[in-house]
Write a structure and sequence with these properties.
This protein has helices spanning about 5-15, 25-30, 30-40, 45-65, 80-100, 105-120, 120-125, 130-145, 150-155, 160-165, and strands at about 70, 75-80. It is an all-alpha fold. It has a two-stranded antiparallel ribbon with strand order 1-2. Strand 1 and strand 2 form a beta hairpin.
């Protein structure tokens, strides 16, 4: 350990983590703080996440239907490549839904609907572990909320119902 790193560790040991430093916002930066604010506000917006997942998966299917088409205006990528980009976007929204514990059966049903759709797509199952993460989340939510997953998965879920409280 160098003298400089020992000095830094010593300084860190003296910091009182409950005290706010006046320059923390300057150190982190406006862009990052605005990003954190947006993420915090969106963390429980399962309806929006579900709709975005659905849109991105639909885009992936459409783009992958023309795998050889070259999209010059988008870096010369092919339909297959852009389709994979759309799948990556969809996976991120599926992860956002899986991450947050469900507070009711409607959200559990959204998770189940996504898991079922992914399960039917063998290529998607090979590409990512999102299905496994959703399944683990579903199991934990069902246990915690005392919900029968099989019954929830059979119900049709409309994301608009989340917003209106139906």
């Amino acid at each position: 350990m160098t003298r400089r790193s020992r000095a830094r560790r010593s300084d860190l040991g003296r910091l009182n983590m409950t005290e706010k430093t006046p320059d923390v916002a300057d150190d982190i930066g406006d862009r990052e703080l605005a990003h954190y604010r947006a993420l915090y506000r969106a963390q429980n917006d399962s309806a929006d996440h579900f709709l975005r997942w659905d849109i991105h998966m639909a885009h992936a299917v459409r783009l992958e239907a023309e795998p050889g088409k070259i999209f010059e205006g988008y870096g010369g990528l092919s339909g297959r490549q852009l389709g994979e980009g759309a799948r990556i976007a969809a996976r991120r929204y599926a992860l956002l839904i899986a991450e947050v514990p469900a507070h009711d059966a409607t959200i559990v049903a959204l998770k189940a609907e996504i898991a079922e759709a992914i399960e039917r797509d063998e290529d998607e199952v090979r590409r990512s572990y999102v299905l496994r993460l959703l399944q683990a989340s579903l199991i934990r939510d069902a246990e915690r909320l005392n919900i029968d997953i099989a019954m929830v998965a059979r119900r049709a879920v409309r994301p608009q119902a989340l917003r209106s409280g139906q």
